[in-house]
């Protein structure tokens, strides 16, 4: 059976490819992520399709702009009925609060369930070298903690971070804060462009609420078997 702590990233560019993955994985997966590749190519029908299939949806468009633009963007996306939406923590306190207020107000106006907002901290593809290359001053872990606290204070529901930072975020932000971790690599998978990675069980043990996993499943020779192995590993760490 599905474990809704697992979110499979649908990083494909057509509805057909998306449907193929959803069909193949069947009841084993209940939560999917639609990111920019799929959304820009196939639009909001992707979200509607997943909802019609009874799946939960993480709409990952990483909004990052001035506060008013992000607030209006969040308002437009709230209409689609996704469960989770991403905005960039580096947009700062005013932008984060504007987004949180917009989600609440739009959901009330539309009479739909409020999407939970997640702030992106430091992308899992950064390591110390690429981080200092963009002028990052604090160590990555300190920057992640800082953005997590900023997001929490602004009324944002949680963050996206590497599993390597899950523990420090849990300690800093408490039990109710959502910690969603991509950069998950089961021992059978390769890292690809991910730098700050951990296994599913290690991420959960360190306090991750949900895991985002894409290529180790969708590019596997046998995606169903990849999911089975991941769920078995997750099962050992109870929610
Ligand atoms: O926001 C995200 O989901 C995200 C944030 C981050 O820091 N790192 C990261 O990999 N992601 C997303 O998580 C997914 C990871 O996919 P795989 O590397 O194929 O497992 C991709 O869709 C990324 O866009």
TrEMBL record:
InterPro entries: Aldolase_TIM (IPR013785), OMPdecase (IPR014732), OMPdecase_AS (IPR018089), OMPdecase_bac (IPR047596), OMPdeCOase_dom (IPR001754), RibuloseP-bd_barrel (IPR011060). It catalyses: orotidine 5'-phosphate + H(+) = UMP + CO2. The active site is at 62 (proton donor). Its EC number is 4.1.1.23. It is an enzyme of class 4 (lyase). Substrate binds at residues 11, 33, 60-69, 124, 185, 194, 214-215. The keyword Lyase applies. GO terms for molecular function: orotidine-5'-phosphate decarboxylase activity. Gene3D superfamilies: Aldolase class I. Pathway: Pyrimidine metabolism; UMP biosynthesis via de novo pathway; UMP from orotate: step 2/2. Residues 5-230 form the Orotidine 5'-phosphate decarboxylase domain. Keywords: Decarboxylase, Lyase, Pyrimidine biosynthesis. SUPFAM superfamilies: Ribulose-phoshate binding barrel. Belongs to the OMP decarboxylase family. Type 1 subfamily. Catalyzes the decarboxylation of orotidine 5'-monophosphate (OMP) to uridine 5'-monophosphate (UMP). NCBIfam families: PRK00230.1, pyrF. Homodimer. This is Orotidine 5'-phosphate decarboxylase. It comes from Veillonella magna.
């Amino acid at each position: 059976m599905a474990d809704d702590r697992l979110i499979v990233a649908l990083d494909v560019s057509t509805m057909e490819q998306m449907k193929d993955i959803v069909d193949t994985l069947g009841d084993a997966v209940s939560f999917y992520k639609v990111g920019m590749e799929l959304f820009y190519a196939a639009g909001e029908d992707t979200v509607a399709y997943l909802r019609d299939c009874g799946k939960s949806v993480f709409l990952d468009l990483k909004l990052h702009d001035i506060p008013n633009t992000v607030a209006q963007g969040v308002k437009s996306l709230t209409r689609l009925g996704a469960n989770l939406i991403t905005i960039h923590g580096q947009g700062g306190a005013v932008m984060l609060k504007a987004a949180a207020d917009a989600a609440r107000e739009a959901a009330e106006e539309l009479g739909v369930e409020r999407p939970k907002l997640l702030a992106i901290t430091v992308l899992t593809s950064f390591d110390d070298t690429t981080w200092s290359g963009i002028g990052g001053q604090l160590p990555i872990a300190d920057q992640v903690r800082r953005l997590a606290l900023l997001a929490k204070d602004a009324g944002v529901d949680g963050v996206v971070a590497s599993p390597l930072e899950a523990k420090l975020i849990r300690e800093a932000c408490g039990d109710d804060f959502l910690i969603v971790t991509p950069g998950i690599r089961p021992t059978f998978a390769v890292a690809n462009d991910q730098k700050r990675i951990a296994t599913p069980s290690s991420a959960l043990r360190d306090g991750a609420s949900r895991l985002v996993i894409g290529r180790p499943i969708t590019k596997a020779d046998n995606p169903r078997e990849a999911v089975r192995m991941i769920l078995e590993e997750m099962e050992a760490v109870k929610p």
